Amino acid sequence: MTQTVLPPTKKTAPVSAPDGTVSDRSRGERRLGWLLAGPAFVVMLAVTAYPILQATYESLFSYRLTDPGNREFVGLGNYGVILSDPLWWQSLWVTVLITLITVAVELVLGFALAMVMAKALASIRPVVRAAILIPYAVITVVSAFAWQFAFDINTGFVNSWFAWLPGVAADTDWFGDFWTSIFVICLAEIWKTTPFISLLLLAGLAQVPEVLQEAAQVDGATRWQRLWRVTIPNMKAAIMVALLFRTLDAFRIFDSIFVMTAGANGTESVSFLAYRQTISRLEIGLGSAVSVLLFIAVMLIAALAVKGFKVDLGAARGEQ
Amino acid sequence: MSGRKRALWLVGGALIIVYCLFPIAWIISLSFKSTNDLTTGGFLPTEFSLENYELILTGGASGLFLPALRNSFGICLIATAISCLLSMFAAYAIARLDFPGKKLILSTALVVAIFPIISIVTPLFNLWRNIGLYDTWPGLIIPYLSLTLPISIWTMSAFFREIPWEMEQAAQVDGATSWQAFRRVIVPLAAPGVFTTAIIAFFIAWNDFLYGISLTSTSAARPVPAALGLFSGESQFVEPTGSIAAAAVIVTIPVVVLVLLFQRRIVAGLTNGAVKG
Fold first, then answer.
1. A154: chain B residues, CB-CB within 8 Å
2. Is A320's pLDDT higher than 80?
3. Is A64 helix (H, G, I), strand (E, B) or coil?
4. For residue A77, what pLDDT is reported?
5. Which candidate, A197, A233, A205, A206, places its Cα nearest to that of A104?
């Protein structure tokens, strides 16, 4: 358990009661609080902290499951191997690329969806809300298959529907090269995760005081000015939370790539590289090192967001 | 609102609905196509066929699909139940008691929620093989907690914060025993939050793919998404597209039913946990 320095208990005891009862009570509450919340806390640590420590330890060894006898300590050797390998840099570039494209598009699109939902007539609102939840709730693998089959050269309808576009013909193989593969992967990701962002932004929109909007309107602000000067600044917390969560989520991308390209044509993401090293090639040492690097990257992004952009998750939840 | 504006928002709403449902409509349409209909390049089947469903429910692929469906339901429900139980106590403490470490627990939940899954898979893969949890239900239920527990704690705390806890004392003042007060007053108030949390946790567990493909090897514990991802058809000469589409439709049914029944609650749960002004 962590040792936290306890804040001094407030001495606001009622006059009649001796001090002892107050601290007794707060001590009781403290004990009960940890008794109730402790198990969940311990389980969370057990399923994450332990594996990452184990992975860090195993990343220091040259260790292949097919050859367990030859396990030897190599220190940071695995990291050297990975960081000097173009495969690693390619996968990092792909991951960053997909993250940037999807998050940028999703923010704009999600905002548009939120605006429509906010303004939608009460009569169609439940229908729109149910529809919005469908992509969120559908399994990522199913969404990936749906998009893959749509663009597939044999089973798809995209080539025949969009044959009028330059560069699209009956024999266009979308999964045949890097950029077209990335395009379809991003489409699938955007379809699936934009609705969730739009729900968060819708909740943020609801927090913008109506009074401010009216005041701006009276002062003669255009619609565009109202959006940039009133709406967006007032829902900054919601935007930041949505942005951070989606960025970290996109950075872990795995399912869609596995289903659509299996990493062909240089479309491997960092998660996929770690998976291939560990599960397919049984290179436990190298796979662990990739996992640790990915973990460090995710934590860095989170720390930068919280420190640099002042994403205050506590404030966003109304906690003081 | 003028008539023209009204029409405009209606069109906007309709566009959203099309955007959300289009890929689903496509996979459903695909699942009803017969084998020789798959490659026509059209959106809709030329003739309505049930052969894909027969194949996965009673035919050659049922040996792969049905156990996977059973595994998915069993593992996801157990993981959801454990998460809900643990987070109920934790959320009660966070919402009601004053103790140091509240913030620590919530921020730990956040860190766990953004944890790269593959960083957990790599060490577990080796450990599970050594202690016999590889390819078993518990071998998936335990790591699933890393997916379901943080969101449960987060969502449930947000719900529990809104419960007027003083009602309990009020009931006791009115002469109810503390057990009666808890059962008659608090349980009905807390139940919707617990229920919604369970649905969201279930969605997340149901969606897992990476744990499923990495920590299982047979039908003993492999869940549906993993089975779909690794499914390669009846034989190497048959394209598995049709059967994958049919299986995809079947695993989508439970989540769609949950969404249609409880959409309002799910939206409240998702946004409550994340954005509270």
1. 38-39, 239, 241
2. no
3. strand
4. 86
5. A197
Chain B contact for A314 (CB, 8 A cutoff): yes
Is the pLDDT at A89 greater than 90? The verdict is yes
pLDDT in tens, B219-266: 889 999 998 888 764 444 456 888 889 999 999 999 999 999 998 888
Find, among A107, A120, A317, A145, the residue nearest to A232 by Cα.
A107
- Contact check, Cβ <8 Å, A204/B275: yes
Residues 6+ apart with CB under 8 A from B50: B32
Q: Structure pTM?
A: 0.87
Average pLDDT, chain A: 83
Chain B stretch 87-146, residues whose beta carbon is closer than 8 A to a beta carbon of chain A: 87, 89-90, 92-94, 97-112, 114-127, 142-143, 145-146
Interface touch B39/A207, C-beta < 8 Å:
no
Task: Mutation target for B interface from A1, A31, A41, A307: give the one with most B CBs within 10 A.
Answer: A41
In Å, what is the CA distance from B136 to each residue of B69, B220, B224? 15, 7, 15
Residues within 8 A of A (CB atoms), B 145-184 only: 145-146, 149-150, 153, 158
Q: What are phi and psi of A72, to 5 degrees?
A: -140, 155
Which pLDDT belongs to residue B23?
92
Closest Cα partner for A155 from B35, B41, B233? B41
Would you say residue A17 has pLDDT above 70? no
CB pairs under 8 A, 24+ apart, for B261-267?
B262/B196, B262/B199, B263/A126, B263/A129, B263/A130, B263/A133, B264/A126, B264/A129, B265/B192, B265/B195, B265/B196, B265/B199, B266/A133, B266/B196, B266/B199, B266/B200, B267/A129, B267/A133, B267/A199
- A73's enclosing H/E stretch is strand A72-73
Instruction: Write out the H or E segment, with its range, that includes residue B248.
Output: helix B241-274
List all residues 6 or more positions away from A174 whose beta carbon is below 8 Å from its beta carbon. A151, A152, A153, A156, A158, A180, A181, A183, A184
